[in-house]
């Protein structure tokens, strides 16, 4: 009856692969929640420890594989995450008071 555990674990391992591939192909983690990935890493770590304690091989090995996949996604997140920068040029919005044409002389033309 262990085959239920192995089959369920294998299917669980496959659900993370498309996300890893999409991140790699697009080089973007824009829509990925960092906190969500951290929660999954913690959960998989605890499940893996539980698998060791009760010596359940399907649980142990399959959650260890999923844990490695989520750790890979964390590394991808750190590698591909780009901090949004403002494209506005601050220097263009400040009037140039050193240039003679920008200084009002008070003369009427």
Notes on the protein architecture:
The chain is an all-alpha fold and 109 residues long. It is 66% helix and 0% strand. The protein has 5 helices and no strands. The radius of gyration is 27 Å and the shape is elongated. The mean pLDDT is 80.
Structure summarized in a few sentences:
The chain is mostly helical.
Characteristics:
66% helix; 109 residues; single chain; elongated; mainly alpha
* Alpha-carbon distance between the two ends: 97 Å
Q: Main beta sheet: strand number and arrangement? A: none
Number of strands: 0
What portion of residues is helical?
A: 55-70%
Structural class: mainly alpha
The whole-number mean of residue pLDDT values reads: 80
Annotation field: number of helices: 5
Strand and helix order: HHHHH
Topology at a glance:
Blueprint: H1 2-14, H2 17-26, H3 34-54, H4 57-80, H5 90-93
């Amino acid at each position: 009856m262990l085959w239920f555990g192995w089959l369920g674990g294998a299917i669980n391992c496959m659900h993370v692969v498309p996300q890893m591939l999409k991140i790699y192909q697009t080089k973007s983690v824009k829509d990925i929640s960092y906190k969500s990935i951290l929660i999954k890493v913690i959960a998989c770590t605890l499940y893996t420890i539980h698998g060791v304690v009760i010596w359940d091989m399907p649980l142990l090995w399959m959650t260890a594989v999923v844990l490695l996949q989520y750790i890979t996604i964390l590394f991808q997140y750190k590698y591909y995450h780009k901090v949004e920068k403002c494209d506005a040029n601050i220097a263009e919005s400040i009037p140039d008071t050193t240039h003679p044409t920008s200084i009002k002389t008070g003369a009427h033309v």
